[in-house]
Design goal:
- By secondary structure, this protein is α/β, with parallel strands linked by helices.
- The protein has one domain: Ribonuclease Z/Hydroxyacylglutathione hydrolase-like (Metallo-beta-lactamase, Chain A, 4-Layer Sandwich).
- The chain is about 20% helix and about 30% strand.
- The strands form 3 sheets. A 7-stranded mixed sheet has the order 6-5-4-3-2-1-10, with no helix packed on it.
- Strand 7 and strand 8 form a beta hairpin.
- The radius of gyration is 16 Å and the shape is globular.
- Bound molecules: zinc ion.
- Zinc ion binds next to loops.
């Protein structure tokens, strides 16, 4: 009947991994499993995981994918399809180098495999009976995408479960945060592109859209459109 969106903070960067389940069909997608794959795998034990979707391939969003897929293989469970944008493949290929620079090991974070499905040409993706619109929102990363759910039948669970009187849902990755925006000082970041993505693709969504950000608490499009200091 509805969607359940469960947030779990993972990684050294407190990234918000998300597990979204269509409660009608019990189909699940995992978004941005940046680390703690074993724990995320346990959380989806009673569902059918059809997809892993990456908003982008930075270490804290993509570093747990390889381990997670191994767990599906070891348990003889059907391997979910991995979706992300072609422009982030190069970032994923250097994830372990990046981890080393931060002093982490390749057991903490691993390069993800190439996507099974490029998200580039998809305007929407389907989870069970539910449809999410895909928006291409480069700037923080060259292949960054967000997912928008144009319906009000969702519930939140886990970390940051405040719904803030919202009736639409945006999985925003590292585009827009409560009072802030994604950093653009990492390789291939582009500040003006990010501002353009936010203003043309995100701020045009309804004010009552709940913004589930990649880090920190939820916010709303209305709040950020009116008070985000980086956008005014
Ligand atoms: Zn990022």
């Amino acid at each position: 009947m509805s969607l359940t969106v469960t947030t779990k903070r993972v990684s050294h960067f407190d990234q918000n991994a998300r597990i979204i389940t269509d409660t009608t069909t019990n189909e699940t997608m995992i978004i941005d499993p940046g680390a703690e794959a074993d724990l995320l795998f346990d959380m989806v034990s009673a569902t059918t995981v059809t997809m892993i979707v990456l908003t982008h391939c930075h270490i804290d969003h993509a570093g747990g994918v390889t381990r997670l897929l191994e767990l599906f293989d070891h348990a003889n469970r059907k391997r979910p399809q991995l979706f992300y944008h072609s422009k982030d493949i190069i970032i994923g290929e250097h994830l372990e180098d990046f981890a080393k620079n931060y002093g982490f090991s390749a057991t903490d974070y691993q390069n993800p495999p190439h996507p099974d499905q490029l998200i580039d040409s998809l305007s929407s993706i389907k989870l069970g009976s539910k449809t999410f619109t895909v928006y291409f929102t480069p700037g923080h990363a060259p292949g960054h995408i967000v997912l928008y759910y144009d319906n009000d039948d969702f519930k939140l669970a886990g970390d940051y479960s405040e719904i803030l009187d919202c009736n639409r849902l945006l999985i925003a990755g590292d585009t827009l945060f409560h009072g802030s925006i994604g950093r653009t000082d990492l390789p291939m970041g582009n500040h003006s592109e990010l501002i353009q993505s936010i203003k043309t693709q995100l701020l045009t969504l309804p004010d009552t859209t709940l913004v589930c950000a990649g880090h920190g608490p939820n916010t709303t499009i209305g709040n950020e459109a009116h008070s985000n200091p980086f956008l005014n």
